[in-house]
Amino acid sequence: MIKVALDAMGGDNAPAEIIEGAVAAVRERKDILVMVVGREKEINAELKKHTYPKEQIQVVPASEVIATSEHPVKAIREKKDSSMVVGLKLVKTGEADAFVSAGNSGAILAGGQIIIGRIKGVERPPFGALIPTEQGISLLLDCGASVDPRPSMLVQFAQMGSIYMEHVIGIEKPSVGIVNIGAEEEKGNALVQETFPLLKACRNIHFVGSVEARDIPKGGTDVVVCDAFTGNVVLKMYEGTAAMLYGVMKKGLMSSLRSKLGALLILPALKKTLKDFDASRYGGAPMLGLKGLVVKTHGSAKRTEIHNSILQCQTFKEQKINEKIKECLEAEEQENQE
């Protein structure tokens, strides 16, 4: 049974939506134990509203909460009894296999590295977000951890992202592309130009070259690599465009009696299409390269995203992703020494 520590107090919709996600997960799978971390009284009040297998949800008390506005490192060091610090420590001690939170991104990043620590050889753990595309899904990384990475870090992002897509998503020999302003090799800023030849020379990934922003939604590139600033802009643009299109379509379909009648015919197909482009169905963004699994969901995450993030942890653990990352880096180090 996999044990997932869940930050009940993090995010805009805590604790109600977080608890609903936990309940949905244990209702679906009998081999998951969710350790809900946070203010005991508030958690129990929410749990009383639901029917679920009691042996699969355990409440772990934590009196403090790290707010979104707080300084990440300071909060991690000073708020020892916060739901985030307590949850991360459960992973460090081996009492939990993974930690899921919708809380302060900077604090999760800092806490993951300070409390759990990086796999030997990992320069900087990235956040990897699964994004819907025309052909399925792609992994975008980094999307929130390293704003100014070195070229060697981007190479590691590509390696870790390839391992994740192959073993968690099931894509054989996943393709890797670097976000650029053009397809030509000589295009891009200094970081992209320095990283491109390193990715090209990397033997354990399938590098296909540059990917322009307009081509990301089309799919065809399984792992999309970039710095965190660029990745976060791409991710937020994705989400904003999806919401805008949904609003425009809804307004158009409700604009007249004729369009309303037409909406009745196309609504089932439209709902299915929109569901395919709902990023929350893929869970949160795993922080790749740590000694334990940490998953960051959107701050606005609701029941569905929390539920899917918990299930995502199980696949990550079963496929031994951390072990595979460690093996990959050790093999590369040995190759370089030879």
Helices and strands, with pairings:
Elements: E1 2-7, H1 16-28, E2 32-38, H2 40-47, E3 57-61, H3 72-78, H4 83-92, E4 98-101, H5 105-116, E5 129-133, E6 136-141, H6 151-169, E7 175-179, H7 190-201, E8 206-211, E9 223-225, H8 228-253, H9 257-276, E10 285-286, E11 293-296, H10 303-318, H11 321-337
Parallel strand pairs: 1-2, 1-4, 2-3, 4-11, 6-9, 7-8, 7-9
Antiparallel strand pairs: 5-6, 10-11
Helix pairs in contact: 1-10, 3-5, 4-5, 6-7, 6-11
Summarize the structure.
Helix content is 47%, strand content 16%. It contains 11 helices and 11 strands. The model has no long low-confidence stretch (mean pLDDT 89).
Approximately how much helix is present in the residues? 40-55%
- Strand share of the residues? 15-25%
Question: Can you count the beta strands?
Answer: 11
Structural class: alpha/beta
Task: Give the N-terminus to C-terminus distance in angstroms.
Answer: 41 Å
Mean pLDDT: 89
Shape call:
globular
> Uncertain regions: pLDDT < 50 for 5+ in a row?
none
Q: Give, in order, the helices and strands.
A: EHEHEHHEHEEHEHEEHHEEHH
Strand order of the largest sheet: 3-2-1-4-11-10
Q: State Rg.
A: 21 Å
- The total of helices stands at 11
Largest sheet: 6 strands, mixed
